Amino acid sequence: MTNPHKGRTGLDRILHALRHSLDGLRMAYQGESAFRQEFWLAVVMVPAAFWLGRDWVETAVLAGSVALVLIVELLNSGIEAAIDRVSYEMHELSKRAKDVASAAVLLSLLLCAAIWASALHARFADLL
């Protein structure tokens, strides 16, 4: 059996995929307070990366670490939604999946914090 939703090609496929992606961002922003908080931090931190980074590599790593947090948070939200779609009943496998996805968010936040702390230290160590 063929999936009826997979028949698009070319520009039509790209436009539909873009619409679905924007819908996903909108849903995450409206329905996930953690994503909303991280989004507003990104609004501040990504422009700050261009000021703090000493070259394009540092700037890319700083901005990329912020983007990674948003990406992992979106994946976490998707996993949670899929599990909740199946059942709200407490189940060990559901808990495991949600906890592992949450741990991924935590690790992305810690990585981002370590990258930014290192960049700030390198930039301002001589002032201390």
Task: Provide a compact summary of the structure.
With 128 residues, the chain is mostly helical. It has 4 helices and no strands.
List the helices and strands and how they pair.
Layout (H helix, E strand, L loop, with lengths): L9 H22 L1 H20 L3 H31 L5 H33 L4
SSE class = mainly alpha
How can the largest sheet be summarized? none
Helical amount among residues, as a percent range? over 70%
List SSEs in N-to-C order: HHHH
Determine the strand fraction and express it as a percent band.
under 5%
Nearest-integer average pLDDT: 94
The general outline is globular
End-to-end separation: 67 Å
Beta-strand segment tally: 0
Contiguous helical run count: 4
Q: What is the alpha-carbon Rg in Å? A: 19 Å
Describe the fold and architecture.
This protein is mainly α and 128 residues long. It is 83% helix and 0% strand. It has helices at residues 10-31, 33-52, 56-86, 92-124. The longest helix is centred in the C-terminal third of the chain and has 33 residues, at 92-124. The termini are far apart. The model has no long low-confidence stretch (mean pLDDT 94).
Which properties best describe this structure?
mainly alpha
